[in-house]
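Please fill in the sequence for the structure shown.

STRUCTURE ENCODING:
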């Protein structure tokens, strides 16, 4: 298939583009490089450096079999301070993409959604049937796009799939995390081992969990990318299907830090701080639906291989 990958110069988009090329697809990447990197675009892909909102229509007029949509603003804290940036950058841009797909007859869309749409869950693991009550602007924009996709599927026959997940980690060869503003736990911990930070902040050790620290779901970036490949094949005209993706168990902050210590051989000092308001004790996604309908399962369900791949990438990209 000929596929357009939006945000394909970013972390997850670049890995997905690489997996698509390896599977024999023709891939075009569109990215404005505001947070992505040109050298992260895989060999064999054509890069269109532009704002997706400006070029979606003429680009899709070339004729595509589908779109994998990763381009987004994604910092939760920033979304609360500058909501307009997120409503325009995420929702308005996605609506322009949907309109361009409809006008040009592009039949399939796989959307990189987020489990942030669920907010603070009443039950864990979180099923797709859980109430969607996002607690931040970022999650609200992802939910709005999900709703729009449902409307376009119903009205125009779009074959749509949304994939909701929490924390992505690890790396795939030369493709990994290189965020200017880093908020993810594993790369933050590994920065201590690299000497870029003095310690790791642990926000609360009195949570109702086995070791007192928060538990989060981590998924290897290649497992996530492969779910997108399965989703584009399983998308059905006129339907918008939603799948959660996760490892099914979750890992605590202490477990993540201990894994980083094992992999790096670094002591990784920690500093205890009070709980952060709004942090749930446990967030784990139930991915039974993806396992059943997409025949997907994570090949990297354990923490050490995820950390190992992230550490290998970070050591090779220390500049």
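FILLED IN BY: designer on duty
SEQUENCE:
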């Amino acid at each position: 298939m000929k596929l357009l990958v939006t945000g394909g110069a970013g972390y997850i988009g670049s890995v997905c583009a690489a997996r698509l090329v390896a599977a024999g697809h023709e891939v075009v990447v569109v990215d404005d490089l505001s947070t992505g990197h040109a050298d992260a675009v895989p060999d064999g892909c054509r890069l269109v450096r532009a704002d997706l909102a400006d070029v979606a229509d003429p680009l899709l007029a070339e004729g595509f079999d589908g779109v994998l949509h990763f381009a987004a603003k994604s910092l939760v804290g920033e979304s609360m301070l500058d909501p307009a940036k997120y409503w325009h950058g995420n929702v308005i841009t996605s609506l322009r993409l949907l309109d361009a797909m409809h006008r040009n007859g592009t039949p399939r869309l796989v959307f990189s959604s987020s489990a942030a749409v669920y907010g603070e869950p009443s039950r864990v693991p979180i099923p797709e049937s859980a109430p969607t009550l996002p607690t931040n602007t970022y999650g609200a924009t992802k939910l709005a796009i999900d709703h729009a996709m449902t409307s376009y599927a119903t009205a125009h026959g779009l074959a749509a799939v949304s994939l909701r997940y929490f924390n992505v980690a690890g790396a795939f060869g030369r493709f990994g995390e290189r965020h200017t503003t880093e908020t993810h736990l594993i790369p933050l911990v590994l920065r201590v081992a690299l000497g870029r930070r003095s310690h790791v902040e642990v926000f609360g050790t009195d949570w109702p969990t086995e070791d007192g620290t928060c538990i989060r779901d981590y998924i290897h970036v290649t497992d996530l990318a492969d779910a997108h490949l399965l989703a584009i094949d399983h998308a059905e005209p006129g339907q918008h299907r939603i799948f959660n993706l996760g490892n099914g168990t979750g890992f605590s902050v202490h477990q993540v830090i201990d894994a980083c210590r094992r992999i790096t051989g670094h002591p990784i000092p920690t500093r205890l701080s009070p709980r952060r308001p709004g942090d749930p004790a446990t967030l784990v996604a139930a991915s039974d639906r993806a396992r059943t309908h997409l025949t997907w399962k994570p090949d990297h369900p354990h923490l050490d291989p995820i950390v190992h791949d992230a550490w290998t990438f970070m050591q090779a990209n220390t500049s």
